[in-house]
Amino acid sequence: MKILIIEDDNSLRELMQQALADDSHIIETAANATTAMMKADIYDYDCILLDIMLPDGNGLDVLRHLKDARKEAGVIIISAKDSLEDKVTGLDLGADDYLTKPFHIAELSARVKSVFRRKQQHGESFVEFGNVKILPETRQVLVNGQAIELLKKEFDILHFFMTRPERAVSKGTLAESVWGDYIDQADNYDFIYAQMKNLRKRLTEAQANIEISTVYGYGYKLEQQ
Asked: Helix (H, G, I), strand (E, B), or coil: what is residue 29?
């Protein structure tokens, strides 16, 4: 999962970043509203953790910006302000959850996973397409009920496509989502080709009836055979 943390407190931001990265998420950060909106305009995220009190504006204005831009990321408001009015306003503006500071990192991780399940997995703890099932929290992959072993990036690529079946995805979008922002500045996407080759081989050997096909001149698409 690709997450944007919008938080001006350096120590808290770094703590959140490390903890969520340890959960195998791709993490990007912003310390103010201006940077947050710039990143959200350029890149796509699965989940955004949004502080309300920012040095150059109100986090609720960032939330309005996200919704006006029709961004699909799940949004969890994180704030020291615990008033009912703030919660209601944030939820009315389209936030998916509200977490009050101080909080335990374990609760933050659980809230992030919950939002992702609702937004991308229809509330389920797994993702299924064809005869392939992924259990994101344990990073297991099953083909016809039999577990197969994938390397970390192979799993991340498969998970990305399993939550977007039958959708053509550009190489740039895939790279940003699996390797992080600014990967679009790379000279080429050769690093994707090797990972994709290995993943396709493993799926074929396991007799999966899904295939990540090439959309020539653009990128890839997950299809059922």
From this structure: strand
127 within 8 A of 121, measured Cβ to Cβ:
yes
Question: Among 104, 158, 93, which residue's Cα sits nearest to residue 130?
Answer: 158
Rounded to the nearest angstrom, the gap between the alpha carbon of residue 200 and the centroid of all alpha carbons in its chain is 22
* H or E, element range at 224: strand 219-224
Q: What is the pLDDT of residue 186?
A: 61
Q: pLDDT tens-digit profile of 105-157?
A: 999 999 998 898 887 766 677 899 999 999 988 899 999 999 999 999 999 99
What is the reported pTM?
0.75
User: Which parts of the chain fold into alpha helices (H)?
Assistant: 10-22, 33-42, 59-68, 84-92, 105-120, 152-162, 171-179, 190-205
Copy the structure tokens of residue 213.
Answer: 């096909």
**In the CATH scheme, what is the code of domain 127-224?**
1.10.10.10
Distance CA 119, CA 53 (A): 26
Helix %, strand %, coil % for the chain, to 5?
A: 45, 25, 30
| Region(s) of the chain under CATH 3.40.50.2300 | 2-120
CATH homologous superfamily, domain 2-120: Response regulator (3.40.50.2300)
Instruction: Specify whether the CB–CB gap between 95 and 76 falls below 8 A.
Output: yes
Cα 197 versus chain centre, distance:
23
